[in-house]
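Re: SN-glycerol-3-phosphate structure - here you go.
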Amino acid sequence: MKIYLDTANVNEIKEYVELGLCDGVTTNPSILAKEGKDITMAISAIAKIVSGPINVEPIATDFDGIIKEAEEYAKIGKNIVIKLPMIKEGLKAVGVLKKKKIMTSITLVFSPSQALIAAKAGADFVIPFVGRVDDGGAYGTEMVAQIAQIYSNYEIKTKILAASIRVPMHVIELALAGVDIVSVPKSVLETMIKHPYTDAGIKKFLEDWNKKKT
Ligand code: G3P
């Protein structure tokens, strides 16, 4: 399973690159707004430290505007993935950008039917929002497991990049379903790394060792 970081904060990304836990990055307008930088500058800074796929979402939602922004961001590097909303303009942009050899992901996906359409459009990645499906009272990881089954049935090459991950159990349930990639915020990664029993175990080992030394 690949782990992408769901942030545009260069310091956060640097920390996890050094831990070997950053296979890629996802951003969106809300995440980029937090950094308060020009999108091209923010993504270029990330591209200096991340060699894996870096997802950037155009602000435009009209077809021409999407293409214009996509071509600008794609200049940053070959690992740039243009993140397109699951709307007709986004689906249409996938085909155009594919011809230009620009990778694409279809985001804001909330159902297996949307995921099927995204794959039909030829997107390299599909981004279902697990936490927000939960917020709506449905079962986010189960929905993504259905997408994984459908993609497996037809040997679909589009990669599933599950996002809107809120807790470690989302990651575990997605891993059990064989999902390709999760994109997680720092808070979830921190919780995945830590466990109170690990801390207690280290403390006990040191106490026992120090007893022996006296
Ligand atoms: O990449 C999408 C992710 O940032 C959305 O997460 O928690 O706002 O649903 P959340």
